């Protein structure tokens, strides 16, 4: 087993088995780090907890819901507005966060009365919102507050309200993935089948494992609608609470992020006989194959092919332009769970970059298997790295860009490596044909940014070049592009910045929406 031992982690010998360098001829039988295990004491993990996985990843994207955390106020603020889970109801779930604000006295004497009071206050403050989710935290789980009983009391006292309870305290799993499982099972146990939906098409699906990051869901549901398919519910991006109660009437579960939502798909198949079809909205080939599979299931393949042909003709030239300029660039792919393998192969094949490292904070062995299998020789695979290991990996690998979250991303910028936000995107959405080109554009802008290049100069010793467009011209020359390529029509390199016309979309105006409004927390 070609384990890689970080210098900074030699005092924790167990960490050696959580990083692997893929050598010549290596496969998954000999090149797979350990993963999805309890955090090793002393390793300073940056994982999210199970509560975070339930509320932040899956629960909060539901749009017409009051999301309230029963616990210290820090828990809800830590999981508020850190991803762009936008919605078409003016981003209600992004504008507000709610917490019972449990204090020391409540830990001693109990916090059930506080919870009930806060639930009523929240419904009174937002009378048009009659749905609520309550999330358990470590503190209130440890003192044994009966959240389910309180929810039942409130629903009896306030007719017309409906409350979902998610018992997923932070310690309920080794990482946030444990919370994914908890909320999946709780939702199907408590709410699925409690409302009959309106069926308007012969072809009906649930779109599962989609969280509408910067409009991803809008892109994909537009394709489905153009194929004549009714999206009964989206679990959970831009999803409606009541629509999700009717998931049992779909003919097919279309699953995007298997890591976070395969559990509810498997239960829907077991309990209601609804088949599961895994798809991928990232990359021209993967997306095209996904639309074909859905079309084949319903016998409407020609509709899928028409969309694929139209979109490819429109966007392939743009993607090819970026591919020429990204060829051979080195990428560290350090995202969440499923993007580890959704992106690894596609960005190499369709954008020409080379993935030199993959990692995951909370992914299971299956996620790492898929990611490692899609990487070439020399790739470094890491499970649950800490900040020091990340810095050491950057020093060793010397990537041109990394795709990761804000915390490790800002760390990378300090050592001269640009990053793209793999969790909330820089200028998304990234799904769909246009979105994939948008992703390529963001990669290009990160690598070729004149400002980034200037930031690496030491004014005490380095020569400071001047003149308009110097940085862009030099970088394109260093990339080995010909004069014809550098001066291609409709591209202007005469200024200090790349002036490619930004991609625009009249189809999805929701992309431009941003959450505004005052912070509001109930019960403080």
UniProtKB/TrEMBL annotation:
Gene3D superfamilies: Nitrogenase molybdenum iron protein domain (3.40.50.1980). Hexamer of two alpha, two beta, and two delta chains. It catalyses: N2 + 8 reduced [2Fe-2S]-[ferredoxin] + 16 ATP + 16 H2O = H2 + 8 oxidized [2Fe-2S]-[ferredoxin] + 2 NH4(+) + 16 ADP + 16 phosphate + 6 H(+). Residues 49-447 form the Nitrogenase/oxidoreductase component domain. InterPro entries: Nase/OxRdtase_comp1, Nase_asu, Nase_comp1_asu, Nase_comp1_CS, Nase_Fe-Fe_asu. Its cofactor is [8Fe-7S] cluster. Signal peptide: none annotated. Keywords: ATP-binding, Iron, Iron-sulfur, Metal-binding, Nitrogen fixation, Nucleotide-binding, Oxidoreductase. Its EC number is 1.18.6.1. This is Nitrogenase protein alpha chain. It is an enzyme of class 1 (oxidoreductase). Belongs to the NifD/NifK/NifE/NifN family. It comes from Rubrivivax gelatinosus.
């Amino acid at each position: 087993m070609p384990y890689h031992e970080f210098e900074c982690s030699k005092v924790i010998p167990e960490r050696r088995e959580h990083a692997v360098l893929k050598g010549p001829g290596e496969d998954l039988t000999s090149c797979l780090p350990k993963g999805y295990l309890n955090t090793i004491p002393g390793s300073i993990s940056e994982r999210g907890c199970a509560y975070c996985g339930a509320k932040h990843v899956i629960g909060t994207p539901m749009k017409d819901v009051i999301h309230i955390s029963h616990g210290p106020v820090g828990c809800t603020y830590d999981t508020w507005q850190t991803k762009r889970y936008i919605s078409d109801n003016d981003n209600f779930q992004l504008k507000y966060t709610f917490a019972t604000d449990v204090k020391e006295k409540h830990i001693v004497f109990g916090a059930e009365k506080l919870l009930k009071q806060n639930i009523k206050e929240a419904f009174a403050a937002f009378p048009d919102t009659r749905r609520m989710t309550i999330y358990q935290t470590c503190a209130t789980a440890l003192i044994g507050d009966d959240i389910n009983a309180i929810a039942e009391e409130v629903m009896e006292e306030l007719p017309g309200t409906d409350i979902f309870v998610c018992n997923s305290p932070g310690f309920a799993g080794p990482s946030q993935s444990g919370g994914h499982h908890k909320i999946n099972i709780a939702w199907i146990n408590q709410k699925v089948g409690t409302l009959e939906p309106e069926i308007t098409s012969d072809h009906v699906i649930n779109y599962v494992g989609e969280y509408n990051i910067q409009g991803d869901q809008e892109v994909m549901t537009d394709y489905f609608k153009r194929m004549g398919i009714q999206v009964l519910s989206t679990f959970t991006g831009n999803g409606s609470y009541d629509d999700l109660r009717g998931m049992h009437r779909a003919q097919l579960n279309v699953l995007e992020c298997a890591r976070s939502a395969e559990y509810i798909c498997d239960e829907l198949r077991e309990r209601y006989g609804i088949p599961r079809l895994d798809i991928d909205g990232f990359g021209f080939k993967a997306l095209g194959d996904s639309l074909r599979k859905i079309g084949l299931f319903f016998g409407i393949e020609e509709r899928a092919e028409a969309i694929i042909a139209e979109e490819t003709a429109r966007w392939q030239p743009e993607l090819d332009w970026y591919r020429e300029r990204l060829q051979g660039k080195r990428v560290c792919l350090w995202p969440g769970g499923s993007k580890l393998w959704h992106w690894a192969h596609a960005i190499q094949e369709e954008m020409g970059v080379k993935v030199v490292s993959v990692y995951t904070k909370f992914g299971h062995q299956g996620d790492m298997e898929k990611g490692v299998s899609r990487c070439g020789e020399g790739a470094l695979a890491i499970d649950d790295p800490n900040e020091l290991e990340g810095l050491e990996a950057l020093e060793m690998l010397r990537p041109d860009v990394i795709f990761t979250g804000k915390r490790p991303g800002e760390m990378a910028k300090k050592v001269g490596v640009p990053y793209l936000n793999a969790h909330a995107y820089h200028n998304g959405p990234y799904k769909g044909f246009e979105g994939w080109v948008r992703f390529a554009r963001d990669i290009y802008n990160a690598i070729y940014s004149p400002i980034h290049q200037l930031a690496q100069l030491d004014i005490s010793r380095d020569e400071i070049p001047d003149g308009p467009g110097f940085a862009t011209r030099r970088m394109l020359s260093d990339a080995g592009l010909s004069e014809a390529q550098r001066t291609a029509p409709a591209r202007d390199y005469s200024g200090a910045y790349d002036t490619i016309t930004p991609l625009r979309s009249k189809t999805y105006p929701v992309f431009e929406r941003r959450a505004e409004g005052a912070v509001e927390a109930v019960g403080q």
